Amino acid sequence: MATATPTKRKIAVKKISAFNWSGINRKGGKVGGEYQAESISQVKAELRRQGITVTKVKKKSEGFLSQLGNKINAMDIAIVSRQIATMLSAGVPLVQSFGIISKSVEKPAMRELISEIAAEVESGTALSETLRKHPRYFDGLYCDLIEAGEQSGALETIYDRVAIYKEKAEALKSKIKKAMFYPVTVIIVAIIVTTILLLFVIPQFEEIFASFNAELPAFTQFVIGISRFLQDYWPLIFGAIAAIIVGYVQAHRRSQAVKDATDRFVLKIPVINPILHKAAMARFARTLSTTFAAGIPLIDALRSASGASGNVVYRNAIDAVRIEVTGGMQMNIAMRTVNVFPDMVTQMVMIGEESGSLDSMLDKVANIYEQQVDDAVDGLTSMIEPLIMAVLGVLVGGMVVAMYLPIFKLGSVVG
């Protein structure tokens, strides 16, 4: 007898949008605002219950900037993770937690994502399985941790660890961006200012100098030569620069070899390389601590830490450690063989393995390196400010001196 194969019921996800409305309240005063609902009819019904006579309801339009602000980022996921952890610890059921959060978030895209997850979970699908359908927002490590929490029956505890992990990871990423943003911005501004001077200001001085009928100082001739070259070939120069940037970005996206070469190169950049090394160490320790504490086997935890390290040098080193540990070697010994991890880290891992508190020791390592990254970023900012001022002074001041040298020389001749 043939039996019908049950088909999985498709969940209808309610899409919530923002609507601008205006109307008249019970006292005859004009009121208006923004309301989040599924449709215009729902907005009108809700406002009527509040005693408001609706005169106009319009779906809120999203321009380019609004769409850009609507994009879900890693910090949004970290915030939602913390909200879920807080509600679970307060005893609020999982589905109800998602429902409450979906009504409180501002981004429509985030609201829609949470509503879809809530609908799936309410239908009986495991949360980890639901999250795996959205790899763009929830990576394998996130889903593995949630799955471990579901299997152990300690989802509340695991979600708290996930929230801490995401918060620490985003804070670390923010510190790295802070270290890079200021000098890069100033360098770009310096290049723009120098280019404007060479293209528009120096030619004006050159016309004045032509009337002197005298030999210009060598430094002035050198700057004028650069200005002429830039005037003659600026389309070619800027076109070549743009082509190199676009080509590199495309190659970085598509070629693993280019990504790996970039990772190795940035670790050799003076001044910032200590920060990058410490950040990679903090990510390794934080990821391994979180996954191991969640009950994930050490081999799988090392695989997750390898993917989260953020640099091919550390990824290869952690993979090598994982292979050695799989073969039965203690992790602290395997870490010494790759010559990447500092002695302090391997010593604390050894103590953790001997005492049975590896996750606690790794958590301490992560805290130490995160604090070191924070201190290094503050120190870099203090150190690089005078250096940048000196570079700007040499560039701009040098051109000013080059342009005024002939005038000083003319003054001495006239005198």
* Classification by helices and strands: mainly alpha
CATH fold-level assignment of the largest domain:
Receptor-associated Protein
How many strand units?
3
Topology order in helix (H) and strand (E) letters = EEHEHHHHHHHHHHHHHHH
Number of distinct helices:
16
Largest sheet: spatial strand order: 2-1-3
Helix content: over 70%
Largest sheet: 3 strands, antiparallel
CATH architectural arrangement of the largest domain = Up-down Bundle
User: Distance N terminus to C terminus?
Assistant: 117 Å
Low-confidence stretches: 1-13, 63-68
Q: Give the number of domains.
A: 3
Give average pLDDT, whole number.
82
C-alpha geometry: flat
Q: Superfamily at the CATH H level of the largest domain?
A: Type II secretion system (T2SS), domain F
CATH domain class name of the largest domain = Mainly Alpha
Radius of gyration: 30 Å
Q: Give the amount of beta strand, in percent.
A: 5-15%
Overview of this structure, please?
Helix 3 packs antiparallel against helix 8, helix 12 runs antiparallel to helix 13 and helix 13 (312-326) packs across helix 14. The protein has helices at 40-49, 64-69, 74-89, 94-104, 108-122, 127-131, 140-152, 155-210, 218-254, 256-266, 273-293, 298-308, 312-326, 331-337, 343-355, 358-414; strands at 17-24, 30-37, 53-59. The termini are far apart. The protein folds into three domains: 17-61; 74-138, no CATH class; 168-415, Receptor-associated Protein (Up-down Bundle). The protein has 415 residues and is mainly alpha-helical. The radius of gyration is 30 Å and the shape is flat. Mean pLDDT is 82; it is low at 1-13 and 63-68. A three-stranded antiparallel β-sheet has the order 2-1-3, with helices on one face. The protein is built from 16 helices and three strands.
